[in-house]
Design brief:
binds NADP nicotinamide-adenine-dinucleotide phosphate; TIM Barrel; alpha/beta; 281 residues
Length: 281
């Protein structure tokens, strides 16, 4: 279990990934550089973006500024992006990777993910990711939003196993079967929408636990992620919330409190169900 914002989890290829990072979904490109710079300055080392977020250039600018202001090196950071549904052929995936790198102003990514499985489009894209990985252009490759059936299919032909699966995960959507499958196959689970995109912040059960520790509901949820061994990437554009979200290493939830939150599952999504989601923007 991680004990600090910068502590890492070892992925199945040996790469160390911070157990907590900053997500930048729905952040305007123009605002992104300042946000990413703030995040790195307050101690975040992992940033999660995607081609479809339209803010990779802003992320890249924020990284550049933060490296200058902190004296950190590129290698101290862990940068993730994702290939979008619109172009999952082999050639399109390679081109998308090059485009993401160019926008970010980087010469490698730590982690590159297939954003959604679609119906059956990911096989070619995965081959492209494997080739990029074998050429040393990416430190690790993985997937998002893969259900058990997608993973079973992927594992039937993959030369390289995904290091992680980034899925919607929060107290209302705990995906027990998927979690168990990932654990069994050494595929790390990473939570998107860990705060249910704000939808759980007024929850009474979590508030009660939060009051006991003098913490916020957001902090209790993120602590629950950490104690579950799930990598988490809460998004906030506000520096004080970035700091708050990372201030979760001075208390522990008891087994009983973990069980209370575990019992909140309703298999309720805020995002699309991967089995039905196949659209192209
Ligand atoms: N792979 C995928 O398909 C996928 C899909 C969705 C998201 N993601 C990734 O996962 C990341 C996180 O998910 P998300 O952005 O959808 O939702 P989230 O992190 O669950 O929630 C973000 C919302 O919570 C608010 N918030 C953050 N910290 C808070 C705090 N301490 N107190 C009160 N409010 C707080 C934010 O507002 P402010 O910004 O105003 O603070 C924002 O409205 C994304 O940014 C993205 O990187 C991936």
């Amino acid at each position: 279990m991680i004990n600090h914002l910068q502590d890492t989890i070892t992925l199945n290829n040996g790469l160390q990934m911070p157990g907590m990072g900053l997500g930048v979904f729905q952040v305007e490109n123009d605002a992104t550089a300042d946000i990413v710079k703030n995040a790195i300055e307050v101690g975040y080392r992992s940033i999660d973006t995607a081609a479809i977020y339209g803010n990779e250039a802003g992320v890249g600018e924020g990284i550049k500024q933060a490296l200058a202001s902190t004296g950190l090196q590129r290698e101290d950071l862990f940068i993730t992006s994702k290939v979008w549904n619109a172009g999952l052929s082999y050639e399109e995936t390679i081109a998308a990777y090059d485009e993401s790198l160019a926008k970010l102003g980087l010469d490698y990514l730590d982690l590159y993910l297939i954003h959604w499985p679609g119906k059956d489009k990911y096989a070619e894209s995965w081959k492209a990711l494997e080739d990029l990985y074998e050429q040393g252009k990416i430190k690790a490759i993985g997937v998002c939003n893969f259900n058990v059936s997608h993973l079973q299919n992927l594992l039937s032909f993959a030369r390289i196993k995904p290091v992680l699966n980034q899925v919607e995960f929060h107290p209302r959507l705990q995906q027990a079967e998927l979690r168990a499958f990932c654990e069994q196959h050494q595929i790390q689970l990473e939570a998107w929408a860990p705060l249910m995109q704000g939808g759980l912040l007024e929850d009474e059960t979590i508030s009660k636990i939060a009051t006991k520790y003098g913490k916020s509901t957001a902090q209790v949820i993120l602590r629950w992620d950490v104690q579950n061994g799930v990598i988490t990437i809460p998004k906030s554009v506000r520096k004080e919330r970035m700091v708050q979200n990372a201030d979760i290493f001075d208390f522990s939830l008891t087994d009983e409190e973990m069980a209370i939150i575990n019992a909140m599952n309703l298999e309720q999504r805020v995002g699309p169900n991967p089995d039905e989601f196949d659209f192209v923007l």
